[in-house]
Amino acid sequence: MIELRFHGRGGQGTVVGTIIMAKAFFKAGFEVQSFPVFGVERRGAPVESYVRLDNSKINLRTNVTTPDHVVVQDRTLLQNIDITRGLKPGGWILINAPANDKDKNRYASFRVAFIDASRIALNYKLGTRTHPIVNTAMIGALARVLEMPPLEAVAEAIREDIFIRTEDNIKAAEEAYRTVLL
């Protein structure tokens, strides 16, 4: 079983991103679960959301406490949240930021990848300048980092769930897939 934990802020599409990622994994033949954990439910508040995937039925019904990989949709969360909490050794940390040696060194015991998903979202007019919606770029980058699910499954899941600027969201995922820094 592979467990993923997403960290984001309300309004960035964190929960929708995990749902789309779970659907893409399902299309690729996996059994999946996707669920959020909310604190204060407001724009800008920290949000966690999870995805589990396996080749067989998943009977586990608990929060993800020891993720294999972590996705950070807002770099400012690195200041206040221990994003490595429970992260398995050798797991990936995907950070929405330009490549940064300070962050790479800070998390040296893990594999770290960077994608400037905010810039990509702004280029495709996803969200606003002050609140870019980065979820589709982040899941595109994650598909590349994990080498699964196929990008076609991600695009198909976006088409099924995103009804505003659908093709721009797919292009954002594709660009992130091509440009993530591993």
Topology, please?
Layout (H helix, E strand, L loop, with lengths): L1 E8 L4 H14 L3 E8 L7 E9 L14 E4 L19 E5 L4 H6 L4 E5 L1 H7 L11 H12 L4 H11 L4 H14 L3
Parallel strand pairs: 1-4, 4-5, 5-6
Antiparallel strand pairs: 1-3, 2-3
Helix pairs in contact: 1-4, 1-5, 3-4, 4-6, 5-6
Could you describe the 3D structure shown?
The protein has 182 residues and is of the alpha/beta class. It has a single domain, classed as Pyruvate-ferredoxin oxidoreductase, PFOR, domain III (Pyruvate-ferredoxin Oxidoreductase, domain 3, 3-Layer(aba) Sandwich). Helices cover 35% and strands 21% of the residues. Strands 2-3-1-4-5-6 form a 6-stranded mixed sheet, covered by helices on one side. Helix 4 packs parallel to helix 6 and helix 5 runs antiparallel to helix 6. The chain is globular. It starts with a strand and ends with a helix.
Descriptive tags:
single chain; 182 residues; alpha/beta; 35% helix
Brief digest:
By secondary structure, the protein is α/β, with parallel strands linked by helices. The chain has six helices and six strands. It has a six-stranded mixed β-sheet, covered by helices on one side.
CATH topology: Pyruvate-ferredoxin Oxidoreductase, domain 3
| Shape estimate | globular
Number of domains: 1
H/E element sequence: EHEEEEHEHHHH
> Main β-sheet, in a few words?
6 strands, mixed
Name the poorly predicted regions. none
Question: At CATH's second level, what is the architecture?
Answer: 3-Layer(aba) Sandwich
Question: For the CA atoms, what is the radius of gyration?
Answer: 15 Å
Terminus-to-terminus distance: 23 Å
Mean of residue pLDDT? Answer: 94
Helices and strands: which structural class?
A: alpha/beta
